[in-house]
Design goal:
This protein is of the alpha+beta class. Helices cover 56% and strands 10% of the residues. It comes from Coemansia aciculifera.
Amino acid sequence: MTSYIFRYFNTIGYGETTRLLLTAAKVEWTEEHPEWPQEKPNQPFGRLPVLIEQSDDGSPDLVLSESTTIERYLARTYGFLPMDPRQAALQEQFRDRQNDVLLTFREYMSVPDSAKEGVYAKFEDLLDRVISAHTELLRENGNTGYSFGSTLSYTDMALYTFMKLFFIQIVQYSEAMPKLFKAKLTPELAKLATTVEADPLLVTYVSQKGSLAEYVLPK
């Protein structure tokens, strides 16, 4: 039986979507948190995350690096992305849009004060476009809490992680970000978050890791 080792830092970051996919797939998997930077030379491309797929005897059968490569491999393997390339591409574009937002946020945090205003405007425009696109997608799907059809998809899990990053992790770097995201949050996105958490494939995992309900539901 195929099993997996997932190597990443003990944080949401670029690893949470993979954790959700492995959990939803109901496969055997364990997580390792390598000592960093000591273990950096021992990882493919010198970076994390890394996914190791093991054969029945426990030997490495496949080693992958890069977060979206890992995610898409698992999503295709376990049915969370359509097999049809065109239908899959429709989902994958939403994940790539999220990366654009996150990379621009990192740029905003690293540039000198004199450049922050321009980069922040770019960041907020990208964030608005991502929220608008996802909201429209959810409405077109009947506002069921799922992005496509009536079952959990790669897009759902990636968007859930995106929200989790803004509400829980990014506050370490900017206290204003959770408030900004909350102000822009639409009812459709809030419903997706609660629907993902209540999905039978993920409900146990969420109960162990913590819920977004306090962040996305009205008080």
